[in-house]
Write a structure and sequence with these properties.
With 260 residues, the protein is an alpha/beta fold. It has twelve helices and four strands. The longest helix has 22 residues. It is globular and about 60 Å long.
């Protein structure tokens, strides 16, 4: 494989961001959700370098109490960017309750759910907050004097296995890191001179109580190696990665539309 030059790629990303904003919002502010994890931290740092601190707006979106929110705050302080804290917990709880109390209407509705109310599944509970967070980012973007453009913070490794919420954290107006694996993203973070604690923080969704790797069932190191070389030492993990990629590939495609 070609050796990865993180410093060179960092410079190319910064230029790409500037060029994109020149075409899609010359005076607009970049809006980025800050979880305190590596991806959002690195994206925020790239945005500051590309546009200047005054054109980056950080948005912290705890769901009620966020145990590691101090990490998100430390990103704001480290980069010296403006930011707002918006608690998405009440909105997530209200929507969940409204769904649970949905009124059945139409023939066969009750039979379709096979329960007396719309069931609140684990996936439903996990995916509502990311979608509310994306709505929040766009609301903030639309409240800014010169408008805002929402940054997507996903990376290539997460995208490959669909580790994102469609129309949640998978959405956005532009995506600086989507062509880089986790190991490459980490190298870019180091090239930016960011805090090792934040760049190498154990990634998690902040919702399920598990790390990313625990939820996936394999490490990012194994996933990155498979993406880059097609090799995986464990056949069962290879099958799992292939399956996740196949069933989640729709998340990466433009919504299909009927053409007359």
């Amino acid at each position: 494989m070609k050796e990865f030059n993180a410093l060179e790629e960092k410079e190319k990303i910064v230029k790409w961001i500037r060029d994109w904003f020149d075409k899609n919002g010359p005076k607009a502010t970049a809006v980025v959700g800050l979880s305190g994890g590596k991806d959002s931290t690195i994206v925020a740092a790239l945005l500051k370098e590309a546009l200047g601190a005054e054109r980056v707006m950080g948005v912290l979106m705890p769901r009620g109490i966020q145990p590691d929110i101090e990490d998100s705050k430390s990103v704001v302080e480290m980069l010296g960017i403006p930011a707002v804290i918006i608690n998405v917990g009440p909105a997530a709880d209200a929507l969940t309750e409204s769904i649970k109390n949905a009124e059945y209407y139409g023939p066969g509705t009750k039979e379709a759910f096979a329960e007396d109310s719309v069931p609140i599944t684990r996936d439903l509970k996990i995916n509502i907050p990311p979608r509310i967070r994306m709505s929040t980012l766009y609301a903030v973007a639309q409240s800014l004097p010169n408008g805002g453009r929402v940054a997507n913070t996903c990376n290539k490794s997460e995208d490959y296995v669909g580790y994102s919420t469609k129309y949640g954290d998978a959405a956005g107006d532009f995506s600086p890191l989507s062509d880089f694996t986790v190991r490459e993203v980490l190298a870019i973070g180091e090239a930016l001179g960011l805090s090792e604690r934040l760049v190498h923080k154990t990634p998690s969704d902040g919702l399920s109580g598990m790390s990313d790797e625990e939820k996936l069932g394999f490490t990012y190191e194994m996933l990155d190696e498979y993406i880059m070389t097609g090799k995986c030492p464990d056949e069962e993990i290879k099958k799992k990665i292939d399956r996740l990629h196949t069933i989640n590939e729709h998340k990466l495609k433009v919504i299909p539309s009927y053409k007359r």
